[in-house]
Amino acid sequence: MINEQTANPKIASTIQRQVNRAKILRTLRTLQPVARVDLARETGLSRATVSSIVDELVLESLVEEIGATTSRGGRRPILLRVRPGREGRSAIGFELSRNNLTGVVVDLHGRVIATHRELLPAGQLEPAGLVELVRQQVERLTGPQAPAAHNLVGIGLGVPGLVNPDTGFVQLAAQFGWHSVPLKEMLEERLKVPVKVMNNVKAAALGEVIYSNDTPDHSPNPRLYLSLGEGIGSGLIIEGKLLSGASYTAGEFGHITVAPNGPLCTCGNTGCLEAVAGLPALVSRYLELARLEEPNRLTTTPGEFPFLTSARFLEAVSAGDRLAGRVVAEAAEQIATALAGVINFTNPELIILGGPLGQVGAALLDPLNQALRRRALPLPLSQVRLITASLGVNAAGLGLGATLISQLSEVVLSR
Amino acid sequence: MINEQTANPKIASTIQRQVNRAKILRTLRTLQPVARVDLARETGLSRATVSSIVDELVLESLVEEIGATTSRGGRRPILLRVRPGREGRSAIGFELSRNNLTGVVVDLHGRVIATHRELLPAGQLEPAGLVELVRQQVERLTGPQAPAAHNLVGIGLGVPGLVNPDTGFVQLAAQFGWHSVPLKEMLEERLKVPVKVMNNVKAAALGEVIYSNDTPDHSPNPRLYLSLGEGIGSGLIIEGKLLSGASYTAGEFGHITVAPNGPLCTCGNTGCLEAVAGLPALVSRYLELARLEEPNRLTTTPGEFPFLTSARFLEAVSAGDRLAGRVVAEAAEQIATALAGVINFTNPELIILGGPLGQVGAALLDPLNQALRRRALPLPLSQVRLITASLGVNAAGLGLGATLISQLSEVVLSR
DNA sequence: ATACTAAGTTTAGGTACTAAACAAACTTCT
DNA sequence: AGAAGTTTGTTTAGTACCTAAACTTAGTAT
Predict the structure, then answer these.
(1) Do B124 and B14 reside in the same domain of the chain?
(2) What's the pLDDT tens digit per position in A178-191?
(3) Do A50 and A128 share a structural domain?
(4) Nearest CA distance, B404 vs chain A (angstrom)
(5) DSSP readout, B193-247?
(6) What tens digit of pLDDT does each residue of A71-130 get?
(7) Is the domain of A242 the same as that of A381?
(8) Are residue B270 and residue B359 in the same domain, yes or no?
(9) A249 vs B347: CB contact, 8 Å cut-off?
């Protein structure tokens, strides 16, 4: 299904060339539509070099001419742009969650050109089964005859678990009972395209940060994506790169201690943020408060207890339920304690709140901002913008897709 | 005093050349003494290119031949090494502290070839006065006629305060009453060499990390230097680069909340680590405990109170004073709470304990390690090595010197 | 002595850049 | 309308820097 010959014509180019290609692509992306002269002026390269590189990029389906524009006193400039849609090249990002596989096709502009979401089959999901599911979705998303398959830059997959993003090796994915699965290898073997595998929350972090349009893609400053849900995780992006850490576990925000003598956490520590502000803790707290306030309402109907799910709790929050609001406000206080520490320590320029609890709006944001003003240092706090995630279930897919796309204009200095 | 002409012959070289120069210098540093053939094999460059670049490096006093070695069956290889000592090139790193100016000359091997430490003159220190002091020390350290002055790569200065390391602009140095001082500009103007100005704790972080010889210089993984003293600061190094943050305040470890309802901190928050484990807090705690245990010893001689300085407290710790040990153990518990959070969140491979309190040894390390085992996640904890700082007062100077030296083999991809 | 081998240099050829000349496609001025 | 001037994009000539291969140098082995 994949034509290897045409897949990547820029195999052997010098470092010089790579750098200049990257310069041109970067400038093109930000200034498009734009003429060669302007690219030359902007990049500092000669017009000759720009022409030569643009020719290459056109051959590779990365760039296209979109006709001449109005004259500026002489010959009319020919406008160029990054080639959009299925005619240009594209990447597919997938997210594997407990019950779904969600795929997104991203074009060279970073725009979504197709999505597909499907339920996982019942029963235990084996790695080989996932590979097959991904293959099917790739076919569906690119078309059965895969007409533009040679234009596929690569595919990415976000997995809930411990993944080494360099090797694409899944060390542990507890939800599926996986240990030591070379998922990247398996997918590349089957699909014959470059594959990127990483943790799903981290992929979502990349997506939300890149698509926030709040800060330049390669800003050196830390940007943090916080996922607030059953668990509390995060992705920290520094110099445009996701921080992995020595054992690929960087970003464990949920196990920061916020109440030294607090409740026992599943990790063995006491007072972890997750133990006091994870959704299960909030549900318990809600029940506790409800019982205190109206001993009759809930204690007399014990059958109702198991039915207060996280989802229902969040509905109650959105509906303006007073008690639920109070529980969220308490959680916000705890989250702020950990977040203030991270703001002081890493001095980020952007924080994006995601995950189910991150989306509830003012019920969380107001008390959170208040507490941050008390707990964080004024200077770093003044530099950070706190916003809400906006990509929903496509976040991880978009992050992976955009990452693959941006690798097209990356310089590889082989050590 | 400085000859600008000979200062930097590698002004206009292509990116290709820069990359290859860097490759060769890196390999040379790790494999020296080494012959051209081996450099060629190791770097993948042709012997011709290696010869050409080595010629350049020799001209620039960066590299020297040290004669032929034994034959391996044919012509004897000529060994090369990075040129050591004053004959090679060198950099000078300074640290400005409350009372001293400490200078260190570092050669291309990263070795100290001279140091000088002097008391600051009495009275208010003005920026212009500091510039003059630095100039004098540079002259003393390189010799009055500055014979090797053209071999000076640059000078660095660590300042206790808020510094933008890119511009060398000191935004605030409270100890000296400085606001908005363009110190780098002033020093470059006066000394006619490249100057790097940064925060002193961060410079020390670079020094301790680089000289720890524990991890490769450009390890992607986070490495943390913790300075425990009156205040508690840190420097976080990721991908071999110091993290600055959006307002150049990254590394504020002392204002992580470890006791949400604890004592008020100078920053306005309650329960900051610094407020419970900074040296002043430990001294107070010691007096409190002493009073409880032996109401007579201290309360009857009130004149003794002001004499318990931080220095004396640390002596008591070293002397094995039981109470002091208990106070340090309590502090270790608090430090571990914050540190566990940082270990979980950044997943570092190395943590270096510095500052006066960081040096007390087992009194701190034992309870700290114990508490970390309780509080930090097992996987990231298992990847981190916790060691003690080893460079003393020269840490910042060495960090700056080594940074300047390593900039010689850095590739600048002007965006 | 002769043959072999390895290290380092020189040479010929290729890639990729720039400056400058040129060609193409406009506008403006008389 | 025709000549002159502008601007864009391409071609050309020259330069920097790489590699492969030939060559020189300086040894060892027989």
Answers:
(1) no
(2) 999 999 999 999 99
(3) no
(4) 20
(5) S-EEEEEHHHHHHHHHHHHT-SS-TT-SS-EEEEEESSSEEEEEEETTEE---TT
(6) 888 899 999 999 998 889 999 999 999 999 999 999 999 999 999 999 999 989 999 999
(7) yes
(8) yes
(9) yes
